[in-house]
Each structure stands twice: as structure tokens, then as C-alpha cells.
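Continuing from the previous page of notes. For each protein in this section, the sequence appears first, followed by its C-alpha cells. Read the first protein now.
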Amino acid sequence: MLDTWKSVLSEIEQMIPSEQFSTWFTGAELLSTEGGTIVIGVPNVFKRTQLQAKYSDIIKEAFEHSNISVKNLRYDILTREKPKTRPHASRSVPGQVQSIADAATNNYHSSAPVNGSLQTGLNPRYTLDNFVIGTNNDLAVSVARNVIDNPGIRYNPFFLYGGPGLGKTHLVQAIGNEIVKRNPKLKVLYTPISSFYSEFIKSLQNKRSDDFRQKFRKLDVLIIDDFQMIMNKDASQAEFFDIFNELTQHDKQIIVTSDRLPDQIKSVDERLASRLSQAGEFDLQMPQFEDRCAILRSMAEFRGAEIEDAAIEYIADNVKTNIRALEGELTHILAVADFKAMTPLEVINEGYVNTVSATRTKTVSPKQVVEKVAKYYQLTTKEMCGKSRVAHIKNARQVAMYILSKDLSMSTPKIALEVGVKDHTTVMHGIKKIEKDLKLNFSLRDQISEIKERIYG
């Protein structure tokens, strides 16, 4: 069966781009071909959904090329034996999550040395195997795999941005770990920009600037985290720019994370912002419902915790902010379950948890949303829901459409009635515009976050 699967994978690899192949078929296994029913094992629910939706025809064709008849095609979630231990609230969790405690302690002084005195700063727990791939991050993961395969070549620098708690640190450290695994001789260093800045200042104080420069310029891969924190640090910014140029000129890989785009970071030199963007900018977005389910399942499996599908779906449906918030809610529910000797679903059904967002769609009316949005933008509801095409009024109206759709799950015809537009296609256009703008407009992200606080606070 192994030879058959290798043959099928070889066929599929010729039929789709390499990035798609490595993203969606890594970890998949052939479990059975009995009676013409092909059973493929996949690591998580999201990969199953994607393979079903996008690649079933290609998979069937690949099997037929290998002279295997396909009557039915089924995808099963692979289950691995896990230790049956109860969770502990302080235990750390992978799968795109770096807790606040991890962030405080995970600096490059604590990691094992590589090539003499150089320390990588990489946390070995962060790998691509435990990074849950979804529609919110699949492009970034594809680029990450390309960087691993060809460091310093195509995507250099690799600039990754997105809000807090979405997995930036996990993904870039996974890249570093995989590069070291493949070639231990390469000099790889992960460091938050704050540590870079502190070390630079210390080198100036001790008159060891040359040692500082040499340390960074001899690297093969430099990973800088939280680049937005470089604001108003002109000297260290200039030093980083020189190191950046030195490394990229010699095809050494630069990887940078930030919570916003380079040109949206105040006080960053225009030349540096331009150079950081030259190979493209790739973002991690908020995970969708299916993504959140897969992430929660991965967290629970890592902890060795048993949790019902209904409990997973409850958390995924009610925690819609970021992955760190998912971790917090899961930890809380599992802790209560352990204390009460109940299952997670029983904890939820008995009302022992009070998920803040769980009551949002039940207690907030469309009218309240419209009123809060209008008030935030200093408009009356009559002005916002009128026929005006003035830019700031139109934007407020579209924000209301977006919140009514995403938070209250209202249909576009009903939203049209609430905000005073004639056609539901206008609502669809407005929602899509806000979704598109949110990818790049961090000011809009902040506005919507503040509006939601006013609505639900």
C-alpha cells in the first residue's frame, strides 16, 4: 500500500503547484483501497475539508493512473495515541499559539548553542507539523516552505504581518527549526527586535560595536520578531539597515514579523520600509470557524485531553478574536472539567463557563449595532442609513454591514433593510470591501475593535 500511495503522490505532484502539494498533502496517508473505497487519513478537519473541496477529482485521477478503480473516496482524521492526562493550566500549547508567559521567557539567550558561542534563539516546540494550516494562513505557509527549500533566494526578505495571537512567532521559528534540521552547519538566529536593540545599546556602552556587527553579519538566516517595536530608535534602525543590506547582498535569508506593514510603522526609514517589502508582504488573518475547530482539536490532542466535538464547536463559534483567546477558553473549560470531574461538554451545558462572546449574538439587536456604529462615527442613524454617498458616511454604513454579517450572522437582504439600502448586492459589496480593507488598514481594525467593545461592553 505504501508503494501505491507513493505512486499516487508522485502523480499528484505533477498535477498541482509544489506549494499546494506540500501544504495540503503533507501528513496524508493511504489507509485502505478495499472494495474500491479509497480511505485517506489526514491530520485534521481542515485538511479534510480542503482535500474534499479542491482535490478529490485530482486524487481520483491519480489513482486511476495507477490502475486502481475508485468507487468512493473518503477522508478520515488520523488519531494518534496520546497520554491520557488531565490538562494543567500552565502547560504551554503549540499549534500557532505562543502564550504571554512564553513570550516573556522565550529569548535567544536560553536556547542551545550552535557553531560554538552562537545561540539560535529557536524554541524546538515550534514546527510546521504542529502548525495548523487554514484559509487564514495557507499562502504564508506555502511561502514559508519555499523559504525552507531555498533560503536567501526567492522570498528574501520574507515579511510576515498580522495581529497578535495569530501565530507569527510560531511560523517563523518553525522555518528556522526546519532549516537547522536540514543543514545544521547554517548559522540561524531568532531574536525579537527589542533584544536586538538592547544588545546594540550594550555594545555601544562597552565599546564593542565591531563584535556586535560581526555576530549578525556572519549569519545565514536572521529572524527578527515584532519589528514594529523599532519605532523611534534611529541608531539601531540604521545599524539594522546596514546588517540587512550586508546579508541580502550575499543571499542570506532575512525573516521579519510585525503587527503591521512596513510603511505603516511610524518613524521607520522609507528606504528600509521599501527594502522590507521588496519580496512581498504576507499576512496571517483571523481564523474562520473550520480553522478554529482544527486548532482547538490540535491543542486538545497535544494536552492529551478528551473533548467532545460539540464542545470544540461551541468554543470555535463563540471565540472569534484570535488563537490566543481560543487557548485561554479551552484551558479554562478543561480546568473546570478537571476540578468538577465532568466532561468539557457537561461543563458548558451546566453553565460553568461564561464565554464573553457567547452571548453577543443573543443579546445584541441589529438596531443596537446600527446605533453604536453611527454614534462612533458621530452620525445619527438617519444620516448613516440614508442615501448619502459621502465617503465617511458610506464607510460607516459598510462597517455596520460587516458587523451585522459577521457577529449577528444576518442575511444580506435583512442587513439591507437595517441600513437603508435597496439591494442586497450593495450589502455584499460593502462587506467584501471592509474585509479587503482590514487586511491592510490597521486603523480600520482598531476602529472596529473599539466599536465592538462599545457594543458588547
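Done with the first. The second protein uses the same format. Note its length before scrolling.
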Amino acid sequence: MKESSLRNSTVTVKVMCAIVFLVFTFCFLFFYQAESLTYLQHVLSGGRTHYDRTVGGIILILILILVQQAVYRITHLYKRGHALTYFPSILILTVLTDVTTDGHIPFHWVWLSPLLLIAFVALAWLSKQFETYEPGQDNPGLFSRQMWINMLTMFVMFLFACLFSNRDEVLHNRLKAEMLIQQKQYQQASEVGKRSHETDSSLTMLRVYALAQTGQLGSRLFEYPIVGGQDVMQPNGTSVKPLMISPNQIRLMNKNRKTRNDCLLTKHLLACDLDAFARDIKKTYDIDSVPLPRHYREALVLYTHLRSHRVLTYHDSVLDADYEDLRKLQRRYPDLSARQTAIRDTYGNTYWHYYLMKK
């Protein structure tokens, strides 16, 4: 009876370890690190092949399971140490998804991986030696001590994968945006990382491009944090560049007249050149009869209030009232840091916030 109970408990442990491993790797590959693997394959193949998250993910999961099965047959760890048989698979998963900005796996894995495998071999050997001394289980099954030791071991290994794979939020967002741009899903690309405060000049360039393609450049760009100023309007091959798509594709936006005009006006706004903006918007928009994008209206209200000698005067009852509230907020906080925080909290999605932070 005890032997039958032990056998059932061992099978339960194996099944549960397999289930949690499959669930974790599926989520890890499909929802967290798909962009890293796409970029890695793009770089390794020179752009000739494309990683498919479904096909590639399934193939990789099958390979990892085969590795685990091979390790199990070598070690025969089936009690409290069974979860350790998944470590080489977790290590492979971690290394493959620790992709740097240049699309390569960091060199430190060349020496660190063998050291970790040596440590694994030593730990597996010790675990095997102690298996014969392990007491029988009074409560076999899902709630046994053996089960929870294995689950804790799996959790620690999953934590290892999450901590030491690529965790660069900006890089993930850049890759995700580029993948969507390749698929011409510009609206979705413009939404990538919308709630994040982390960005760089290249991600800002991709947002400019996606918003220009959807005609929302003048109404949504300053809802995002912006790094790079006017230089983000075009790739420069160094600080502003795509990772997987051609830089020439980004420059194609200049072929459409409306988009070209919006790009010129946005460039003036990013440079905080309100005089050039006011001069050029008169040439491209009939401001008295055509509804203007939100950021253009914000810029014109700001221009009207800041310039005594101006080429045009623009008023919007709602924005004029909001601007007056902004001025009151500035006077309320004499301390610069407190004033900037208050403006960001209230007007963080406006052009006014960008302009005041730059000045």
C-alpha cells in the first residue's frame, strides 16, 4: 500500500511540474519575450527569416521538454529534487531571451552557463544521495511536502528566468512597435507603451511615424514622454534608428503632402520654435475655419499669450481658461521641483507641459 501511495505521489509531482513548466514557458514566450526572440532571429539571419511566435514558440517548448526528459533519464530525480531536472531547460530559455540592444546574447553567458551547469550537477548529485533517506509521506498528493518543495524550486527557477532574461522595457516597446509597423498596424503601434514613462529617442521616432500614418501627429504626440527633441523626426543611424525595419521606410512619410506639413509643424513644436510654427501653420491650415489638432491649438494659445509681436492671434475659450489655470498653478508653487511635478500631474498630456519642461 505504501509503495502504491509513493508511486502515485511521484506521478503527481511529475505531472504538476510538467504543467506549471508548460504554462510558464507558454506565457513567457508568447506574451513576454516574443519580441526578443524575433529580434535575435532577425540579427542571426541577417533579416532573411522571421520568427513566428506561434510556430517558433511551440518548437522551442518541445525542445525544452526534450532536454528536461533527457536530464531526468540521466539523473533519475523523482522525489523532492524532481523539479531540478527542469533547470537546464530554464537556463536555455533565459540565455536565448537575454537579448541586448544590438541583437546579441551577452558574452557573460559563455562562462556563466558552464558554471551554473556545474552547480546544477553538484546539486542534483546531492539530491540523489538524500533520496534514499527521505521519510515516507503521511499526506501524499497535491498537498504533500514533496509537492510543495518541488513547486518552490520551480518558482525559484522561474524567477531566475524573469530576472536574467531581457527586462529592458524600452527595448521591448521598440521591438513591439516595429513589429506592428511592419504589419502596417499603425494605430496599435502608436499605443505601445502608452502607460509607461520610460522611452528613448528611437521609440519616440517610431511613435512619430505611427501617429503620422494615422493622421494623429498633431493631436496625440505630446501625450507621451519625449526624448530627443526635433532630431526624432528622422533616423540618424546612431541615437535615432530602427532595429529591424529599414530606415528608408521611416523617411517615406515625407511623400504625402499633409503628412509632410504635419511633420514640419511637429518639428517646430519639438524645437519649441513657436514663431516658426505660427508662421508655417498659416501656410498649411485655415485656422479660422478648419478645426485644428489639439496640440496645434495648445501651441497657438501659448504663442498668443507669450508673444506681444505676433503674426497671428488665436483664442479658444476652453484652452484660454485652462492656460490661465496653468499660470495660477505656476504661481502657487515657487519651488521649481514642486512646480514641475504639479504641472506634469495636471498637464502632462499637453504641449504646454513639454514646452515648459524644455524652457
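What the second structure shows: The longest helix spans residues 2-32. DSSP finds 17 helices and no strands in the chain. We return to this in next week's lecture.
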